[in-house]
Amino acid sequence: MLRVHQFFLKGTSLAQLAEEYDLVKVNIATIHTALQQKELVLPEMKQTVRDAEKKVLAVEAGAQLEQTLIKVEGEAAWRMVINKEKVRYRLDRVRVMVEGREGEERRG
After folding, report:
1. How many CA atoms, within 13 angstroms, populate the side-chain half-sphere of residue 54?
2. pLDDT one-digit tens code per residue, 11-66
3. Coil, strand or helix: which one is 1?
């Protein structure tokens, strides 16, 4: 009877191992399928990342250009102010010279 009992236990253990083996095979197949699907989308995802990086670089370049434009506009505005002041100074000098001559002509 002991031998029958041991034989039964071994058979039960083998059946349980077979079930676990089948379950492991199913899990491996599921994981393999999931991995294949992810490998299919990976190139597309990488391209999406590259496209996004290009857009970021373009936006950064645009922001840099805008800052440069603001700086150049400011410099141009100050240059115009300085030039107008120079013109006004010259006109004032001419006016003083003309007024001086007119004063001399009146006296003379």
Report:
1. 6
2. 678 788 888 999 999 999 999 999 999 999 999 999 999 999 999 999 999 999 99
3. coil
| Distances in whole angstroms, Cα of residue 43 to Cα of each of 35, 55, 96 | 14, 18, 79
* Other beta carbons within 10 Å of 27: 10
pTM for the whole structure? 0.51
Position 11 scores a pLDDT of: 65
Contacts of 13 (CB under 8 A, 6+ apart): none
Which DSSP symbol is given to 108?
A: -
Q: Give the DSSP letter string of 36-69.
A: HHHHHHHHHHHHHHHHHHHHHHHHHHHHHHHHHH
